[in-house]
């Protein structure tokens, strides 16, 4: 009796463990993430159209043609069936064509660099809507967010109004990372001296998790932040609160923040130096350093065979 209950308990254990899982990836709150979740479901269903029948037929054949089943027909000279060949090759070919078309369409539709064309499935993007620009810097081991139009900056805290397109401009201080908010959109890499982009929109107010999904060293596990989806009035109040903070994000402040640290608390900075993100991207925050874009432009101005003068 005890062993019977133990076996049943072991069968229920996976279900109990899965009950504590957060299914935000398959039930997100942003339109881009919703489309990605739907793509996963459709692709899986298409592949299961082949996988499930193959598994069932494998078990059926193993049972029917087992050694002890003497009533099964024995046809050692059988070698071809046109109908069977059509099913074996035709069905997978159709699935591959469908998956190929789906992949091609969604690769372009969900391109993270592509500006949004809709708020959600029922609402196209109005022509007069201006995206919220957020400049993202992955540091060791924390996140810096700069709002250039609002003139504020934050560490490990991000906010955006509901149903407003967001344009993220992403880079890193020195180590490659990956910026990921599962409820909003897919991940995209943050790389030093490079700028990547991500467009997204949050459709439901709430507090969501954001983190780095690319290992970057000792403090990687705690490189997390909160993303707040707010109505416009609450977002305006949040910006006003940030502006009232005495902290500043000037170049000297950034150089201090850039030093490796773990478990950094969320902080707001009431002002940010204009052009800071450009300096971070081009690795010229420190005094007396030449920005990479100016260095490359200077090198392009040198004629072939001409030596560049210092």
Structure overview:
There is one protein chain. With about 300 residues, this protein is of the alpha+beta class. It is about 35% helix and about 20% strand. The chain has seven helices and 15 strands. It has helices at about 1-20, 30-65, 80-110, 230-245, 250-255, 275-280, 290-300, and strands at about 120, 125, 130-140, 140-145, 150-155, 155-160, 165-170, 175-180, 190, 195-200, 205-210, 225-230, 250, 265-270, 270. It has a six-stranded mixed sheet. The protein has a five-stranded mixed sheet with strand order 6-12-11-8-9. A hairpin with a 7-residue loop joins strand 8 (about 175-180) and strand 9. Helix 2 runs antiparallel to helix 3 (about 80-110). It is elongated and about 85 Å long. The mean pLDDT is about 90.
Features:
elongated, alpha+beta, six-stranded mixed beta sheet, five-stranded mixed beta sheet, single chain, 310 residues
Strand fraction equals 15-25%
The average pLDDT score comes to 90
The largest β sheet comes out as: 6 strands, mixed
**Unreliable stretches covering 5 or more consecutive residues:** none
Rg value? 27 Å
Q: What gross morphology would you assign? A: elongated
Order of helices and strands: HHHEEEEEEEEEEEEHEHEEHH
> Portion of residues in helices?
25-40%
Number of helices: 7
Number of strands: 15
Based on secondary structure, the structural category is alpha+beta
Strand order of the largest sheet: 10-7-3-4-5-14
Gap between N and C termini = 87 Å
